[in-house]
Structure prediction request, 138 residues.
Amino acid sequence: MIHTKNGKVIYKDVMALKRGLKILGVMVAVMFSVGAVTFYLSDYWIEWVGQSEVNAAIHSKNQAKLKKLCADKRTFSKLKSLKHADVRFESDNQGSGKVLYYVVTIKQAGDFGLFFKTNMVLGLDSKLVKINTYQEEK
Prediction:
């Protein structure tokens, strides 16, 4: 027990303060861990979204979804004949702000650029908005 000059016991207050600091420390550690895991997994999430949305567009019956995603006729003609796209990401995010841009290789069709829009910093709420044929500058 801790006594003050007037003889009052403040032991309970000190224990409550220590308990509160421990709880705060655990909360900070959990928040840091969730942030670190989210940051680490955000690239894998974007790759999964890209793979699944490109394949969903290719598999659509009337190809309207694919036509809407393709930036031009050249991109559409390369992708419309595919039965399945094996999308391999060749770069990290080259965009900025709420626009994400990745250079990808689709094994059967060549190199493409994928544009995503996102509402979150790490891209966990991303949607594929455009596919274009990637052309290297010479």
